[in-house]
Design goal:
Elements (H helix, E strand, L loop, with lengths): L1 E2 L5 E5 L8 H11 L5 E9 L12 H4 L2 E2 L43 E5 L8 E4 L6 E4 L29 E2 L9 E2 L1 H4 L3 E6 L4 H10 L14 H11 L3 E2 L7 H9 L2 H4 L10 H21 L1
Parallel strand pairs: 3-9, 3-10, 6-8
Antiparallel strand pairs: 1-5, 2-10, 3-5, 4-11, 6-7
Helix pairs in contact: 4-8
Length: 290
């Protein structure tokens, strides 16, 4: 089984069934549905917990506030059918104004946890109107995976390969995909998407993708961070605290843990604001030459 996630994402296992390892959770979910080959693990998004500056402690201890759809000031927070709004450059807005894709929950999308042998290496799509078939080597996304097609289709003989292709049109459908409403009772991903203001600013100035924060008229990294402050700190969630003491002990007793640097090479907030100005000038200059 394979799950693709970032270094700012951590898996939380619900202890209600005495599960302590990811392996236990996967085995349990597989027993509930032994046809399942891809588990949609939902995510919660954590904000800055109103921290402006870095502190040398575990991320799971420093940030204990996340977004909760039901804690929005509006009585009913709308749920958009599109992608995340934090980085939708043409229309950035608060999740409380329709920025999640969590099927009426406080989840933020999902990530596929899939059986590798069932994942498709290449895919096809078929136009339902014309019947035209297109092949694609771009099959599984970073967040989700497409499984090989299990049923034989006579119209797909020309697509036969040593390993079956996946039908992208069937992604997420059928008993081989377990949806996030079912998986969420057993495990979820905690996504610490911004951390403190200082760390977020540093990440922007160190990134080759920093231009994504400047793609609308009012957009700057400071604008995006302030936007997350409006909604991503509205609910206290300290469930990850159960991992804190064992993790600290393990790090202390390991060669890797003792070599960890708790001193960060961060700068003042004004330093990063000057960096933002330079990025904006470079983008303006680039735009003028195109």
């Amino acid at each position: 089984w394979m799950l693709t996630h970032d270094v700012d994402e951590f898996v939380y296992i619900n202890p209600v069934n005495n599960h302590t390892m990811i392996h236990d959770a996967v085995e349990y979910l597989y027993q509930l549905n032994n046809h399942a080959r891809s588990l949609s693990v939902p995510r919660y998004i954590f904000g800055s917990s109103n921290h402006d500056y870095f502190k040398p402690d575990l991320v799971i201890d420093r940030f204990t506030r996340r977004w909760n759809r039901f804690k929005c000031k509006k009585k009913k927070a709308t749920v958009a059918s599109g992608r995340r709004r934090l980085f939708q450059q043409d229309q950035p807005r608060s999740y409380c104004n329709g920025g999640s894709h969590g099927q009426g929950t406080s989840y933020d999308l999902e990530k596929g946890f899939s059986l590798v042998s069932s994942m498709a290496l290449s895919c096809y799509t078929q136009n339902k109107t014309t019947g035209q078939v297109k092949t694609s080597s771009y099959c599984s996304r970073p967040h989700t995976h497409t499984l090989v097609t299990s049923r034989h289709n006579e119209t797909m003989k020309n697509l036969t390969v040593h390993r079956p292709k996946g039908d992208k049109g069937l992604h997420g459908e059928g008993e081989r995909y377990m949806n996030m409403r079912h998986v969420g009772y057993t495990m979820v991903i905690m996504h610490y998407m911004v951390k403190s203001r200082q760390e977020f600013y540093n990440r922007v100035c160190s990134s080759v993708w920093s231009d994504k924060y400047f793609r609308c008229e009012k957009c700057t990294p400071e604008f995006y961070f302030n936007l997350t402050e409006e909604y991503a700190n509205n609910f206290v969630d300290k469930r990850m605290a159960r991992y804190s003491a064992p993790l600290k002990k393990r790090l202390k007793n390991s060669s890797i843990g003792t070599s960890c640097k708790t001193e960060s090479n961060l700068h003042s907030l004004d330093h990063y604001r000057h960096c933002f100005d330079n990025i904006q000038k470079s983008l303006d200059k680039l735009g003028a030459t195109l």
